[in-house]
Amino acid sequence: MRTLCSSTLIGEFFVIGFAALVAMKDADLSASTVWLVSGIAMFLCVALCGVITRPGGVALGWALQIALVASGIFVPTMYFLGAVFAGLWWASVHYGKKIDEAKARFAAQSTQDSPSGV
User: Fold this and answer.
1) Is 26 in contact with 77 (CB distance < 8 Å)?
2) 114: how many CB neighbours lie within 10 A of its CB?
């Protein structure tokens, strides 16, 4: 699960950075505010890569997905991109857990099949 979720988060890191460049063109938003908010979100993407398997890591990832979709208020394209990444996040969590379970079954099966004397 860690690999799939981390890949999604790193993709989001870049999308947030590019969205910040677009948001800077909005006259109602100051560049410092845009980069402060975007920088925090980008930092969270990278930080979540390290804590994704800990308790609450997936929930924090979902909170980030909601914030990404909500950023469409300022950059309308983010409604679409946020929804795409929310779908990717769901797939990463869902299929990542299945892959982890299959790896655990395989590891348990291989230890049962190996001779105990070797």
Assistant:
1) no
2) 9
Cα(19)–Cα(23) distance, rounded to whole angstroms?
Answer: 6
Per-residue pLDDT at 118 exceeds 80: no
Cα–Cα distance, 70 to 110 (Å, whole number): 46
Asked if 29 and 74 touch (Cβ cutoff 8 Å), the reply is: yes
Residue 87 CB coordination number (10 Å): 12
In terms of C-beta distances under 8 Å and separation of at least 24 residues, what long-range contacts does 55-58 make, across chains too?
58/5, 58/93
pTM summary value? 0.85
Residue type, 40: I
Q: Specify the residue for token string 């460049």.
A: 21
pLDDT band for position 51 (50/70/90)? Answer: very high
